[in-house]
Description:
The protein is α/β, with parallel strands linked by helices. It has 5 helices and 8 strands; from the N terminus they run E-E-H-E-E-H-E-H-E-H-E-E-H. Helix content is 41%, strand content 24%.
Amino acid sequence: MVKKLSEGSSSNQILLIAPHLLGESLAIELVREEKDLEVFLKKGQLTRHPSLIIWYIDNFDFPNSINIELIKLKKSWEPSSILLIIPSGHRLSKRQLLQLECQGLLEDPDLMTLREAIKTIKNGGRVINFRERDQSGLLKEPIVMGIGQWLLVTGVQQINNEISNIETELKK
């Protein structure tokens, strides 16, 4: 647990799910400049419902299992928001990334990007920031998608998914 506040003061608790050493160093960095932030690495350390869950994924063997785990997290910690952090080097497509059910999605963010994403999500917004790859697989500059663009893209994806479901039902 990394804690910046005295006991009993009002704060925003964050549950950080990450590999051990990464989680500890990230928690220390997050509370260093944020006076009202408490970051916990274990759910048993929380004193109340977290305002945000940050999940750093380090295993991409089964993309569908990521979404299943996100849904479980969402049900277990509702109404907490979920911010998903993925390292560079994954093999997920943009489409797969955008279909993940979370309020935030960051690919290999720097500390400033992560802090901004936390603020945005805690204020009710959504954040998507992932790196674009060229045809050779090399990383390009990061692409930041605003809420309006994200809503449009996810809305179109939901419509396409529903059309596919309807077509499947009609073929029966």
